[in-house]
Amino acid sequence: MSAVNVKTILLKILKWLGITIASILFLMFIIPILFPGTISQQVKIFANKHLAGELDYKKTHLTFFRHFPSLTVSVDDFLLKGSKPFEQDTLLSAKEVAVGINLKNLIFDREVKIDEIYVNDAMANVFVNSKGEANYNVYVSKPSEKPRDTTGTGASIKLDLIKLKNWNIKYNDHAANVLVNAKGLNYTGRGGLSEDIFDLETDLDIDKVDFALNRIWYAQQKTLHADLITRINTNALTFVLRKNELRINKLPLKFTGFVSILKDGYNLNINAASEKTTIRDMISILPPQYLDWAKDTKIEGNSDLFFSLKGRFSEPKNLKPDLKASLKVNNGFVSNSNAPVPMNNLNMDLNVDLPSLDTEKLLLDLRTLSFDLGKNNSFRAVVKTQGLNEMKVNANIKGAVDLATLDAALGLKDIELKGLMNTDIQSNGIFSLDKKLFPKTKGYFKLKNGWLKTKYYPNPIQNINILANIHNTDGTFKSLGVKLDPFKFDFEGNPVFVNANLQDFEDLLYKVRAKGTLNVGRIYKVFKKEGLDISGLIMADLSLNGRQSYATTGQYSKLDNRGTLILKNIKATTEYLPKSFYIKEGNFEFENEKMWFRKFYGNYGKSDYSLNGYLLNTINYFIERKGTLHGRFHLKSNYILVDEFMALKEGDNTDKSLAVTYAKEEHPKSSGVVIVPANLDVSLEANAKKVEFKGLGLNNLAGLATVTKGEIYLKNTTFDIIGSRMGIDARYQNESPITANYDVALKVDNFDVQRAYKEIDMVREMATAAKDVKGVVTLDYKLKGDFDANMKPIYPSLEGGGNVNLRDVEVKNLKMLSAVGDNIGANAFDNPDMKGVDIKTSINNNLIHVEPFTFKVSVLRPTISGTTSFNGLLDFRVRVGLPPAGWIGFPVVVTGTHEKPKIKIFSKTGQGIVEALYNTKSNKVIREEKRAEKKSRAQQRKDKRAQEKNAENAEKQIDKDLKKK
């Protein structure tokens, strides 16, 4: 072939190649222009059909160039909210969400088939609340019994590729007590994702992942890489792990097994192993603060890790899987360059078995833990336990270790240890507080000339000497003895010592001597516990000598408890309150059975308090697991703000109970209710100049408050409110951090109606007619009900009743009375004479039932009775008595609402109101009150008698509850 022919052929090839490339580029440019309406419309149809959560996004793009060479529909600033009951919370937000379109179906069938998904720069918040309700149920599939959609409208999904780039994911499962935080997640998944059964190839990288179970962190800031092949069966929603290789930091893990998603949970069979790895690889999964130490330390040896999780998890059926794990370390060697001798022969064999994730069945088997630190420096431990509250124990621990040598061998940077530690303990038997069993035990722990210094504080804790002996001969509490002689140390030039001899834990015989001054603020800085206190001091000079039963049986003369304990500037927290208590000064004096509060001043937020009085049973309280503190105090305060004590309010306390933490996350805008400790039995003679609750001020409060068994009782308590002196008896009990119940009986004279209407929310909501009333009334009323998550009364829960005396009032232009007057031609109804009238009412299920009462309107004598609701519905009977003395009259019926009353003259047939339904267990209104269907007069009278009987029973129950204390 001549050179000319070769040149011609080459030019033709280049020509057609150019035309092809130009055509492809033209098509890539023109297709998004030809089909934008089709694609955009059908994607929206698909979203509306299949998403239960609210979807929002800004700009839409159709292009080949964002994810070349795929034709993709992209949306910017994507936002998807959760499914019920999380409609207001974000499930997923992303800078870009794109779906790849199948070109063949688009061009020839004008159908949108989605086969790729790309999501970039996203934040996902997956949440399951404590009831097991999840926010991710946003995809609504078509019911299988419906015929296939043949209209051709809407998009369909046949995925072959999922690509996620730069995701941050938070998975918070309150039902399972699991928390996972993943940052910098990148994921690529390939496979026929639309098939019934397919293999999903996964490539996953996470920059930082945290994992916690029951608020215990098992992994923090770990990198993770996964190379997985998972067989997925969409019919059974089962995931079979075929090839699953993970790496957590430097530790490799291989997984096998399957996961099945069920309607009420999961079915699991997962096995994981990291075999024939090194101790250094194992250490890489430790918390971040230990990793810098590992970099500069020579670490050798082998390790093996095994893990399995098998069984069903179902919160409704109370099913949980079985967990098993084992960790083996062999021939370990740890040494720092400055160490005189290394840590040699480090061996560990630990096995864990947790059936049904039930800690009461927990089996810990530490078959060996041992190491050597040169001659005469070694440690050996064998420990096996089974159970928790009733724990079988078999332990043998023995060692003699020079802590300075251990410190040097490990190369610890943040802590300096010195001292000679020696221990020898053998224990075998059952430990149970409830059954008062303790393993047969003989042993001691001794530390001589100890020294502890950290990088967080310049001065050490020094001269630490501990000699503790423990013995038990028959496996019961009776033979248990513990002797601490001595425990002493010096800190900041102040010596502290404690001697203790404790015998017979069935009826504890104790002899304790303690003396010293401890700067709590500084000692916590040694351990970097910032914010736990301010600059607190504890000064003790105590001698406690006696037997537990002497106090409980009243043999106080046999007790010899004396001494003082002084606290200054101490900050303390409790798991149920959002803020810290600040104890400015607390002087305590021990006198046999009593712990006297001689001077006790402090504050909680804006609230201040001073206490004088005593506690009983303080020693028993600390000895017994379920002890109750008894006491009597005088409490004085200038100001108490009740709102600050509500459990979900913002505060500095980070050590809250799990129930409070979960309630705050599930009800972020709620204040919660006040939680009452269940282990107190204390009475308080209280005097407070001002108490404020949700904007309502109570002045000069005085009375007796009793806290017992998680309830608060107020007896003969009085206070000034809107210019009147009110007396109340009350009971309060929280049911959870967001629900509470109460009973209250109140009496007040000279109650200014207009001030009450303007200043008290409950009066405005319960007595809407009060806005047209001026003057003073007398109240004698009893109520019981529930508080909601913001500690506001739930009106349908209210029950009770009482009497309102219109002592000196003026009623003008009350719409209901004015409407009656307009219809019968008596303008005097605009300004009736109601002075001295008694109105007896009862309340039940959001309805107020008014018993007949009579008043004057010029020469007329109207009598009113009937029912109204808190939402304004009316069903009243008015008998207009004519002169003389109202013996003869005619009936009027008033229905409608307070704002728009309807009047029927010469009628006795109204229209009843069906009461609301309220569930006391869930604290929810099942049905609001509504207009009843037309009923006969006999049926209406029967309904009214039943409602009044319910209210009467409620009043009796209130009296009964308030008389408990």
TrEMBL record:
What InterPro entries would the database entry show?
AsmA-related
Q: Does the keyword Transmembrane helix feature in the UniProt annotation?
A: yes
For this record, the Gene Ontology CC terms, alphabetical, are: plasma membrane
Q: Identify the stretch(es) annotated as Disordered.
A: 928-965
Q: What GO biological process term is on the record, naming one? A: regulation of protein targeting to membrane
The UniProt keywords, alphabetically, are: Membrane, Transmembrane, Transmembrane helix
**What transmembrane ranges does the database entry give?**
16-35
Per the record, where are the segments of Basic and acidic residues compositional bias? 945-965
Q: Which domain of life is it from?
A: Bacteria
Enumerate the PANTHER family for this protein. DUF748 DOMAIN-CONTAINING PROTEIN
Q: What is this protein called?
A: AsmA protein
